Amino acid sequence: xxxxxxxxxxxxxxxxxxxxxxxxxxxxxxxxxxxxxxxxxxxxxxxxxxxxxxxxxxxxxxxxxxxxxxxxxxxxxxxxxxxxxxxxxxxxxxxx
Length: 96
Prior knowledge:
The chain is an all-alpha fold. The protein has four helices and no strands.
């Protein structure tokens, strides 16, 4: 697995969790929207970067359709990028 994709996936996953677990509750329960205003765009950029990187790797490395779609699905599920990373590493070791 590409190291940059791995780093981007971890950053995207962390930004999503921070947005869901801290920024959004602060906005709706504490009336403090600053976290969403700051973290929302950061997460959006990381999300798009993750999707572009997944597409690029899928084409370059010849990923199966299943692996390709799982990468995208992982981006919209909490903890998804972390789980996809483990899946991809296990698949890579299995092929070696």
